[in-house]
Design a protein that fits this description.
Radius of gyration: 22 Å
Strand content: 15-25%
Distance between the termini: 16 Å
CATH architecture of the largest domain: 3-Layer(bba) Sandwich
Helix content: 25-40%
Number of helices: 15
CATH class of the largest domain: Alpha Beta
Number of strands: 20
CATH superfamily of the largest domain: FAD/NAD(P)-binding domain
Shape: globular
Bound molecules: flavin-adenine dinucleotide
Length: 438
């Protein structure tokens, strides 16, 4: 019997297992996919390594930077020098710095709205869970263009449209990141740095150090709690453990059969926290022609398909753009099929950056909704009325089960940093249980 079974070899499960092993516990990590890393995933495209999952880290994400250093990896800054493009309602305009090119009154309203949201996020109130973010915006933002700019930010951060997201969830999320500006900015924000070796290396190297305690291709189907411990049934046989860290998002945890059934609040949460929708699109080029023309590569748009674009030139210097199809667009363009989507993305890049953008040396995209072990990304989202009723089940375990995974973090929830913070918290809970019983 293992001391601890960890379900899910994403960054959170692997880091929790590492921390427990360091304290002398025996661990077994069970991973459904035939690879580790979950929502961190680097693939080779035309011989070039491309991050198709989480890729950026930024200031105050101290655990992520520390892990990068500990594993002998390094970071490099995201490129963002030059003009940026705002394309809303068929009107496009360029701007410099981080303030979008809006008429003065709209700029003032945008600034006031951000300040107001920063203030509200310091202390989210349960009453705010009865509203969607769209309802709040309709009541408090006069300019439709400012509402659209806010909606774009929300779609990109959550992979969800403002109509789908509880205002309370939004504020709690901003609070866990420290500020809204920090969430959206490149410089001094969550998009500041990238990992030279790709973020997947974090998961890969943690898993290598844990070998042979990581079993891939081993989906957990059923968990039975007995008087002595837990029996976990997988496609590769049964595993026994004294305690478990469940490091999968609620939407996937709800697909596991539990005996006895999970507590009611947990079950309701798992039913009511679907994954957001994001398709990450990367185009590799021979030349960074947008830089030559004075563009930073950054675009903020009303979607259909892309909502944001950034320069994604690799650490080795291969020119690249990355774009995101998010929220309802991700559902529509996911259903549209690979070829139709690729053509639409390249045509849109062409409208912004010219003919050369339509002819990449390679193009790849990943619709995370079509990946059965993520079913969407970047994170699980909740509509009104969920967090204030069953939100406590996000990180409260039951029986012999402890919860990890970025959705359960209270610092940088939804990010790589959150995955690490949740791992630390869940590992500390398990260690406390073993200390009490020794
Ligand atoms: C496109 C995209 C862009 C993102 N951008 C950023 C970014 O720039 N910066 C950032 O910080 N974050 C970003 N994120 C979010 C970040 O990647 C995640 O927060 C983080 O990787 C989550 O780690 P986790 O271990 O909590 O969950 P996961 O990585 O989802 O790990 C869960 C694991 O559990 C496994 N699993 C599920 N069900 C079972 C089962 N029944 N049995 C066994 N195993 C199971 C899954 O296969 C998976 O490996 C992005 C994510 C995506 C997808």
């Amino acid at each position: 019997m293992h001391d601890v079974l960890v379900v899910g070899a994403g960054l959170s499960g692997l880091y929790a297992a590492t921390l427990l092993r360091e304290k002398g516990l025996s661990v077994q990590v069970l991973e459904a996919r035939d690879r580790v890393g979950g929502r961190t995933f680097s693939d080779r495209v035309d011989g070039v390594r491309v991050d198709l999952g989480g890729q950026w880290i930024g200031p105050t994400q101290d655990r992520a930077y520390a892990l990068v250093r500990r594993l002998g990896l390094s970071t490099f800054p995201s490129f963002h020098q030059g003009k940026k493009l705002l394309d809303i309602g068929g009107r496009s305009s360029s701007y410099a710095g981080s303030i979008p090119s809006l008429p003065p009154l709209q700029l003032i309203e945008l600034e006031l709205t951000i300040r107001r949201l920063e203030q509200l996020a310091k202390n989210p109130q349960p009453g705010q869970d009865s509203l969607s973010l769209a309802q709040w915006a309709d009541r408090h933002i006069r300019s439709s263009r400012v509402r659209e700019v806010m909606a774009i930010a929300v779609r990109v951060i959550f992979g969800a449209d403002p109509e789908e997201l509880s205002f309370y969830h939004f504020l709690s999320y901003v609070r866990s990141a420290g500020s809204l500006r920090r969430l959206v900015e490149i410089d001094n924000g969550a998009q500041q740095d990238r990992v030279v070796e790709g973020t997947h290396s974090l998961s890969r190297l943690l898993a290598e150090a844990l070998e042979p305690a990581v079993r891939t291709g081993t989906p957990v189907r059923r968990v039975r709690e007995t008087t002595k411990g837990l029996v976990v049934e997988t496609d590769r046989g049964d595993f026994e453990g004294r305690r478990m860290i469940l490091a999968v998002p609620p939407a996937l945890a709800g697909r596991i059969a539990w005996e006895p059934p999970v507590p009611l609040a947990r079950d309701l949460l798992c039913q009511r926290m679907p994954m957001g929708g994001t398709i990450k699109c990367v185009a590799l080029y021979e030349q960074a022609f947008w830089r030559d023309a004075g563009w930073s590569g950054e675009v903020t748009a009303a979607g259909n398909p892309l909502t944001v674009v950034f320069d994604n030139t690799t650490a080795e210097g291969v020119p690249a753009l990355v774009g995101f199809i998010v929220g309802g667009d991700a559902r529509r363009w996911g259903l549209a099929g690979d070829e139709v989507r690729r053509a639409a993305v390249l045509a849109q890049l062409g409208r912004w950056f010219g003919e050369k953008a339509t002819k990449p040396r390679a193009y790849v995209d990943k619709d995370w909704a079509q990946d059965p072990w993520s079913r969407g990304c970047p994170i699980g989202i909740t509509g009104p009325g969920t967090l204030t009723t069953v939100g406590s089940a996000l990180r409260t375990g039951w029986g012999r089960i402890h919860i990890a995974g970025t959705e359960s973090a209270d610092q940088w929830c939804g990010f790589l940093e959150g995955a690490l913070q949740a791992a630390e918290r869940s590992a500390a809970e398990v260690l406390e249980e073993f200390r009490l019983r020794s």
